[in-house]
Amino acid sequence: ILMVDEKGKNMKCLTFFLMLPETVKNRSKKSSKKGNSSSSSSSKLPPVCYEIITLKTKKKKKMAADIFPRKKPANTNTTAVQQYHQQNLNNNNTIPAPNWQGLYPTIRERNAVMFNNDLMADVHFVVGPPGGTQRLPGHKYVLAVGSSVFHAMFYGELAEDKDEIRIPDVEPAAFLAMLKYIYCDEIDLAADTVLATLYAAKKYIVPHLARACVNFLETSLSAKNACVLLSQSCLFEEPDLTQRCWEVIDAQAELALKSEGFCDIDFQTLESILRRETLNAKEIVIFEAALNWAEVECQRQELTATIENKRKVLGKALYLIRIPTMALDDFANGAAQSGILTLNETNDIFLWYTAAKKPELQFVSKPRKGLVPQRCHRFQSCAYRSNQWRYRGRCDSIQFAVDKRVFIAGFGLYGSSCGSAEYSAKIELKRQGVILGQNLSKYFSDGSSNTFPVWFEYPVQIEPDTFYTASVILDGNELSYFGQEGMTEVQCGKVTVQFQCSSDSTNGTGVQGGQIPELIFYA
């Protein structure tokens, strides 16, 4: 029998010799004449024997993936494969075809079929808290290969032979995400389950999945979730993620403190935030955020949200709020009338503002340092001419990109070249046409060639290696200075900024010259 491959080339040749019974008798007679001891065994030769002759080839041996490269299979196979994948998700796996292995050319794909599959499962997990459990199948060998914890659980010295294992502290969706990584070598993360998946990966010591979860969190980090992620990163002992969270909280402190996630943090994280020296926020905003947290904490402790209970749950953390550093108006109209302070505390703080001999306070009276803004100046010189630079409601714009995450706080703009003047400025920051931040304000220039800062309401987070568009529309009667000898790349501290022309610019600003001489940012 000649075996050929799918291309018609010889693979192996099987030659069969059929021994008739008469031939067997003749061979046994000849062997008996020899009179040796092997006659008895020779007479029992099998009627059929075969020989395998392998054809010689100079080609190297190929793996299954090389012989059957990944390509779109026929419609019937595609339907079957998709059906199995859907069954894996639904935990309702029954393999109808006896040769299902033939649908998958590699061991990785065949192993992936076993994900969330009852076929050959030798252990089951009941995952989730009471009332929200899900029963998931597993295969001890696959799990032990993917996790040292599972190896110790099933094959260690203290292994227990249980058919069902309860895991109440892990969410089913997170456990499934971990199993998918172990079985399929695929990482499937979602924003609403990534923290739970990180917990599962840490618990069962699956470090590569844990690293992927941290990277996902760092990428999706913003002022809205920074406080919650700070709390979780400390719990999971992820110092890099913790540092990233602090960078966002420091630069966008007011947004972070006003977010819903701030009220979900634990008391220890609250103390660390209130103690933070570099918070870039007004103290009245910090005070109001602490009161909002106290109200939610009362609900968690099943307490009525009265003034007394709010102060009770805040405890000593109240004195970490630097109330004496507030503006007097903020204190008089806010903290003093909140009811959270005692009458003596309110009187002493008023005396702190007004009296020459200041009383001793339990509150910290030293202002926070905040963050020092950095300035990236893109021109080497500036000038003015008798017919430039005029503004008629047209846009000056430039594009820029950075190599590290920064937070744009505002722009530095030129002023009048003909003496003192006031300008109205509408500043805007966009990414791919989407407005990320804008503000309308006025600034006064003194006639010098200095730049004058114009700020956004809140600093805008800028991701690395992506071009953003900075724009300004100035309104003023006087001519102004303009920049010359522009640079396409500027090194500002540890941050490298690249500039390129913007199609939004309709008033002459470009890389070589024009307006928007400075980017003001936190890094």
Automatic annotation (TrEMBL):
Under Pfam families, the record lists: BACK, BTB, PHR
**InterPro entries given for it?**
BACK, BTB/POZ_dom, PHR, PHR_sf, SKP1/BTB/POZ_sf
Please name the PANTHER family in this protein's record. Answer: BTB/POZ DOMAIN-CONTAINING, BTB_POZ DOMAIN-CONTAINING PROTEIN 3
Which species is this UniProt entry from? Answer: Onychorhynchus coronatus
Q: Where in the cell is it found?
A: Cytoplasm
Give the signal peptide as a residue range, or say none if absent. none
Kindly state which keywords UniProt assigns to this record, in alphabetical order: Cytoplasm
SMART domains tied to this protein: BACK (SM00875), BTB (SM00225)
Q: Which residues form the BTB domain?
A: 121-191
Q: Where is the composition biased (Low complexity)?
A: 34-44
What is the protein's name according to its record? Answer: BTBD3 protein
Q: Name one GO cellular component term.
A: cytosol
- The ranges of region (Disordered) come to 25-45
